[in-house]
Amino acid sequence: MHLIIVSGMSGAGKSLVLHTLEDQGYYCIDNLPLELLDHALDTERVLKRKKIAIGIDVRSGEKYLQKLPDMVSNFKKEFNTDVLYLYAGKSVLIKRYDETRRKHPLSNSKTTLREAIIKEYDLLLPVREIADIQIDTSTSNIYELATNIKKRICDSEEQSFSLMFQSFGFKYGTPRDSDFLFDVRCLPNPYWIPELREYTGLDKEIKEWLASHESVTKMEYDLSTFINSWIPNIIESQRAYLTISIGCTGGHHRSVYLTEKLANFFRKTYKKSIIVQHREL
Fold it and tell me: Which among 37, 119, 129, 259 has the fewest CB atoms less than 10 Å away?
């Protein structure tokens, strides 16, 4: 049985994720109190299912959230278990609540929305620390998040290990869901060549220009060698997902080119479990 525990910040997209998983054949249980989790997984009706997703949120209370790591450790001995944690920036969450006019589960007459979000973040730290995969939904719309879930979980369900490569621009902020983050701003920048500026790292003109520089080729070799040498240790530690972020200044040229090169290199070994995302394109 594949068990996915979906948790994270209120307003970060847990409901959408559960709906997406349900569409992909998962038996979904939302807002299950943690004190009932063991019992729920013991029932005959649930155990007959091959794919189960359970939504857990802050309303379970600090006492049970602190117990979740031990519970998950026991589940992993019985089932193929993953913990998915969703989050977004504080200002993004505030904006989403303002737009929907929903009430945060921890806000009341004495607790403002901002205070409730900060409190929730602290209470969920035990969950975040054991998460197999973390997704920052700050810049994702509902369609992008659904697609990401399908690629990261559903499409690679039969794969033992999933590798995600993403490019980004430092000028727009660093992605917070990275396991490894590499800065390639030290490489030659085609942005300063007027006739190349409007192209991206997906275009032939940029590929040929970057490939002609020895430093770019060396960076590609060094990154692929480093990542490849540590993947066996990562897999051995029971990790099912790995996110690698490559950043340049604007996220259009160097980072895109190297992200594609690395994805193609590892695709030879991991085939369909390679995911590529270019945040700024």
Answer: 129
